[in-house]
Amino acid sequence: MGTSLTPDFWRMFAVLLVISAAATFVVSAVLDTLVVRLRQRRRRRPVSTGRTATAPRESRRPLLHH
Q1: What is the rounded CA–CA span in Å between residue 32 and residue 36?
Q2: Which residues, 6+ apart, have CB-to-CB distance to 57 below 8 Å?
Q3: pTM
Q4: Which carries the bigger pLDDT value, residue 24 or residue 4?
Q5: Nearest Cα to 49, choosing from 57, 59, 58?
Q6: Average of per-residue pLDDT values in the chain
Q7: Are 51 and 57 in contact (CB under 8 A)?
Q8: Is it the case that residue 34 has pLDDT exceeding 90?
Q9: Residue 56 has what pLDDT?
Q10: Contact at 8 Å (CB) between 51 and 60?
Q11: Gap between the Cα atoms of 38 and 36, Å rounded
């Protein structure tokens, strides 16, 4: 036996649809903002290799004698 969809159902459906669309928009905007900020922070940091200009690379390697 089928049920009829009342005007009250459609009203609640529309309200829930608008709320879920707004929540999706807000969450995606917040996540986009966080991703942009994280990428900007990574670009601003200078890349540090851990080596100084005066010390040659070979002097930092451990000597392995067998």
Answers
A1: 6
A2: 51
A3: 0.54
A4: 24
A5: 57
A6: 82
A7: yes
A8: yes
A9: 57
A10: yes
A11: 6
One-character DSSP codes across 37-66: HHHHHHHHSPP--S--SSS-GGGGSPP---
Q: Which amino acid is at 44?
A: R
Nearest 5 degrees, angle CA 21-CA 25-CA 26? Answer: 120
b/e map 21-51, b = 16+ CB within 10 Å: eeeeeeeeeeeeeeeeeeeeeeeeeeeeeee
* Two tokens, residue 39: 């990428």
Query: For residue 57, with 0-12 CB atoms within 10 Å meaning exposed, 13-18 middle and 19 or more buried, which class applies?
Result: exposed
Q: Which two tokens stand for residue 35?
A: 């991703």
